[in-house]
Amino acid sequence: MRTRIIRIAPEDWADDGRLAEQLAPAAACLRQGGLVAFPTETVYGLGASAWDPEAARRIYAAKGRPQDNPLIVHVARSEQLLPLCRELPPLAQALFRRFAPGPFSCILPKSPKLPMTVTGGLDTVALRIPSHPVARRLLSLADLPVAAPSANRSGLPSPTEAQHVCRDLEGRVDYIIDAGSCDFGLESTVLDLSQPRQPRILRPGALSAEEVLDFLQNCPDFQAEAGWEQRLLEPGRQRPELGAGERPLAPGMKYRHYAPKKPLLLVESLAEAEAAIRLRLETEGAEQQAPLALYVAADWAEHLRRVLGTGLWARLRPVWTFAPEAEHREAAQKLFWALRSYDESPAQLLLVQALDERGLGLAYMNRLRKAASPQRDIQPETAVAAARDRGEMSL
Ligand code: TXA
Ligand code: MG
To answer: Which of 60, 191, 280, 363 could form a disulfide linkage to 204, CB 3.0–4.6 angstroms apart?
Structure first.
């Protein structure tokens, strides 16, 4: 299949006529059951008509995605939500009024008319109204609800630039719309409202859990079950290694995800980072080894450069940094980009800074724990873990 690429310059985003002209072929393709990758404010999505079960099947095939992992359905306007679900309760309406358009997906009991292929066989559906102007224009031109998972090959980090989509899906989809980098760089927050008295964040994301919690605590339409606040965040904190008989609530969360092809190591403190670097670079024969890559806050990088000295520091390559912030926005925004850049670099191990779970730190850590999940052959990590157990890491 030949994939056509449509490039949209930022100055055209606000030009309705120009945007309509450029997006018309992709919108027509969606109406005919084709596959269109498009930018959203979170990550790039791979869209197809949500009314067409065959089109949904094509999404699973193009991504290599397991068929039991449901898709999020995207619409341009809130009036398009009701036909997709059994009903739109006042609490859901209030949440959409507050958080849409934006990085918020809400799970509700599905309309019987919506094909089961879209919802992975579940009787609920995740709904979202994206805020990216190109996504909104495409959705309104197609005049359809569009099922769209992230536009990556299953298991790899989500795409935050059109180039990532091209690498994973060129030749497997009809159109790729290129509108530059995504603002948030992490996927939407998935809130399960199928039990309206017990809402749960199944996947922490670009809308912070604090904002959701604060809204629910003050929402007159919310009749809460006792203890709901503790349970709200339970699924998103679930560790990747589930115990026997334990079941993840979002089917997608049971698969290894967001992972680069090479190993990564999460480091919790500067002392641990320094020890891991020394362990790796100062052992015998280490000069011949591939370089070690780093993804840390700018202040960590500065400290490590000082304590390691120029010799060792020069052997850390590439070094990617983000701004140290309480809400961790930039760390989250550049995470998938860094994981993909690492795969393309000669480095054979990536050290990544663990963050506290405030703001976007919760979603950042959720993705990293899955990416660093020990179902993989990660010898360097095992070596560091063993050293840590022997007490060699406690500087
Ligand atoms: O930001 C986003 O949400 C992006 C952009 C493209 O909108 N989309 C995205 O979709 O991340 P995807 O398919 O990569 O992730 C959807 C997640 C999966 O973990 C899936 O299992 C869960 O949402 N999900 C979707 N529908 C569900 C449902 N009915 N019940 C439980 N989990 C659901
Ligand atoms: Mg995904």
So the answer is: 363
CA nearest neighbour of 147 among 137, 157, 139:
139
Which residues, listed in sequence order, are joined to residue 374 by a DSSP beta bridge? none
For the question of whether the overall pTM of this predicted structure is more than 0.70, the answer is yes
Rounded to whole angstroms, how far apart are CA atoms 282 and 139?
54
Name the residue of 161, 177, 190 whose CB sits within 8 Å of the most ligand 1 atoms, as the mutation to test its pocket.
Answer: 190
The C-alpha angle 215, 218, 223, rounded to 5 degrees, equals: 100
Mapped onto helix, strand or coil, the DSSP state of residue 316 is strand
- Identify the residue whose C-alpha is closest to ligand 1 atom 15: 149
Residue 382, pLDDT > 80, answer no
Q: For 195-208, what is each residue's pLDDT tens digit?
A: 999 999 999 999 99
